[in-house]
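stage 2 :: seqdesign
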């Protein structure tokens, strides 16, 4: 039996702008994504019996076909029918919170695709894996690529920028609270679609996509001005998630109150993060937020930025 263990990193959105509504039902986005070193651990072990099984240490994570890691196995076996007689056991050690806006599930799908490519010696290139992975979810290609990237389209079109690796982040989430991503986008559409541009007009769309490339966030990253990045954080989805969840709004306020380079909600939330320059500063803010909000439901982590989305452990 051969086995591979991969670590899949969480992602945060340093910038998330909703440009318009697409004919496939998704939203056209302009984002800056960043991998952070809070990781799930996925072990894939080849089996002589055909089929796939998943075990997970987290009670909230489904272990049936709805799990993105199993969807990744199914996608590969559909694309390559010759794999139908292969078997794999997947063990998922979940450390990234679930329903958090940190792309934990997408990272597990990314790790499964990349891991199976190794385990079953499929010879797929990284580009092929990224292209295939977009069928599993908008964030999965970024989870394979990792580091720092501009993401457009529905999130799957990636443009590399120089990786940020020096910063640290404090992440905070109420354990019992999760936000449905479809709900967040639908609600945004109901309330703010008057701001959408007509994305069928390719010149307008291109101009809006170019704005993020030419914008101050990407310029700060390009110039390596890591401390300036915090002043350009932006997430359109805050407009709908924060009013619906006053506890998250209060958490964001408490986080921002203790300084740092900037505070924002990640993705569709409800995780809130603060950027800082050092581990010491991260530990300091973490302790202060815990003291301000003494609630056993509040989970806090300190993690550094990382240039990779996936790491092979063995
Ligand atoms: O692609 P993913 O499975 O992560 O998307 C989850 C849901 O989030 C979609 O079904 C859709 O409702 C919403 N979404 C969207 N536009 C995007 C990405 C996600 O409307 N670009």
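stage 2 :: out
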């Amino acid at each position: 039996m051969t086995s591979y263990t991969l670590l899949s990193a969480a992602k945060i959105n340093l910038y998330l702008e909703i440009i318009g509504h697409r004919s496939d039902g998704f939203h056209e986005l302009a984002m800056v994504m960043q991998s952070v070193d809070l990781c799930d651990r996925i072990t894939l072990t080849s089996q002589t019996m055909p089929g796939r099984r998943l075990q997970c240490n987290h009670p909230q994570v489904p272990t049936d076909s709805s799990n993105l890691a199993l969807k990744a196995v199914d996608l590969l076996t559909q694309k390559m029918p010759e794999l139908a007689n292969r078997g794999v056991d997947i063990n998922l050690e979940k450390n990234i919170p679930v329903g958090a806006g940190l792309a934990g599930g997408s990272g597990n799908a990314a790790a499964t695709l990349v891991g199976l490519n190794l385990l079953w010696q499929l010879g797929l290139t990284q580009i092929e894996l990224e292209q295939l992975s977009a069928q599993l979810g908008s964030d999965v290609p970024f989870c394979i690529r990792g580091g720092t990237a501009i993401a457009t389209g529905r999130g799957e079109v990636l443009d590399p920028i120089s990786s940020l690796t020096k910063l640290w982040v404090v992440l905070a989430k109420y354990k019992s609270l999760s936000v449905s991503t479809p709900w967040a986008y639908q609600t945004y559409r109901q309330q703010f679609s008057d701001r959408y541009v007509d994305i069928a007009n390719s010149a307008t769309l291109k101009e809006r996509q170019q704005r993020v490339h030419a914008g101050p966030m990407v310029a700060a990253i390009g110039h390596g001005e890591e401390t300036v990045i915090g002043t350009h954080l932006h997430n359109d989805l805050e407009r709908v998630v924060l009013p619906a969840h006053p506890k998250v709004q209060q958490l964001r306020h408490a986080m921002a109150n203790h300084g740092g380079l900037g505070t924002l909600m990640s993705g569709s939330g409800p995780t809130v993060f603060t950027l800082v320059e050092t581990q010491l500063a991260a530990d300091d803010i973490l302790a202060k937020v815990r003291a301000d909000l003494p609630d056993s439901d509040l989970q806090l982590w300190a993690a550094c930025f990382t240039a990779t989305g996936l790491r092979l452990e063995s």
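stage 3 :: structure notes
- The chain has a mean pLDDT of 96.
- The first strand starts at residue 3 and ends at 21.
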